[in-house]
Amino acid sequence: MTALAGTLELCLQAFDFSLVKGGRQEDRLTPRIVKTAESSFIPALDSPNLDGRLIQLFSLAAFNPIFCVSPWPCRDIKMETTSNALTQGALRWSGEHWMVYLRPEGSEQDTGMLSLYHAYTSPAGMGTAAFVQIEGENGFKGFCTDNIAFAHFVKDTQIGAYTPYDVEMPIVDADFSKGGDILERPTWTIAAQGREIVTTWLALKAPLVGPPTLHPKIVFTILVFADSGSITLDGEPVPGDPYMRDGWKKSLGESKSSCCFALAETMVK
């Protein structure tokens, strides 16, 4: 089982801090703060009966569970929490955010950029919207969407100073399809204005679950970075590779890949 597969399976596990079997004092999980190579801000729980391995736990703001992330089985662990540990507020949006930014080695200019938002729920309903900017004589620039109201919602609420692409690009109608194995090689395909854009995420890292995020009002995410990724335009690969982006330092304490995706991203008012 991959680290990501293990994480997503564990995200379905239950809700209180005592072990179902035994309930012995030595089986209790003790909360503490740990500093890891992935992040300096990860709250974690320790158990001596889990061979010193860490189970990272985070609150999901709008839905009241606590999720655990670990490449090891959580077995019979249940968890409980109190309401004061959870973020309160009306659900503003929940969905996915997929990003691929490419540039040639040694260059400071991106050759291809995609930032795609896929809504489970929003004030504009369900939908998908993607900023696509591919440089070159036969390139492509457009804010692709299958829900114009959702595209305006994204532009009004998701864009920040860290955005590297032209946010004033024209809105264009598009069809979207997701494919591949989300645990190993997910893809998105966009058909717009007679063009086809295919993006792929490869060499996925173990996910980071929960806050912090770049956006101050996004209270939860399952964030997966990829060491490799690609964009093709009408079957032709866009030159360049993912690179380390300094923009992640503010929230994660270090540079991270320009190729990543966030699942269950959640915003409250």
Give a structural overview.
- The protein has two domains: 3-85, no CATH class; 91-268, no CATH class.
- The chain starts with a helix and ends with a strand.
- The radius of gyration is 20 Å and the shape is globular.
- The longest helix is centred in the middle third of the chain and has 10 residues, at 148-157.
- 8% of the residues lie in helices and 42% in strands.
- It is mainly beta and 269 residues long.
Summarize this structure as a short list of keywords or feature phrases.
mainly beta; 2 domains; 12-stranded mixed sheet; 4-stranded antiparallel sheet
Q: What's the topology here?
A:
Elements: H1 3-10, E1 30-34, E2 42-46, E3 54-59, E4 66-69, E5 91-102, E6 112-121, E7 127-134, E8 140-145, H2 148-157, E9 171-173, E10 175-179, E11 187-192, E12 195-204, E13 208-209, E14 218-233, E15 236-237, E16 244-245, H3 249-252, E17 256-257, E18 259-268
Parallel strand pairs: 8-9
Antiparallel strand pairs: 1-2, 2-3, 3-4, 5-6, 5-18, 6-7, 7-8, 10-11, 11-12, 12-14, 13-14, 14-15, 14-18, 16-17
Give me a quick take on this structure.
This protein is mainly β and 269 residues long. It is built from three helices and 18 strands. Strands 5, 6, 7, 8, 9, 10, 11, 12, 13, 14, 15 and 18 form a twelve-stranded mixed β-sheet that branches.
